[in-house]
Amino acid sequence: MRILAFLAVTATLSACGVDGRPTPPPSVNDNPPPGISISGEARIGVVMR
């Protein structure tokens, strides 16, 4: 049981920092202007083969 706990902790800690150094969140000036923009395509129907 101790071995399983050790392996679980080791696997969890080994994934720390895998994706590189941490980066700060973007500054307030980098945010897009407020508003709503919706685009896309939708289809509804039945396909019979």
From TrEMBL:
Biased composition annotated in UniProt, kind: Pro residues? 22-35
Region (Disordered) residue spans: 17-36
Protein name (record): Uncharacterized protein
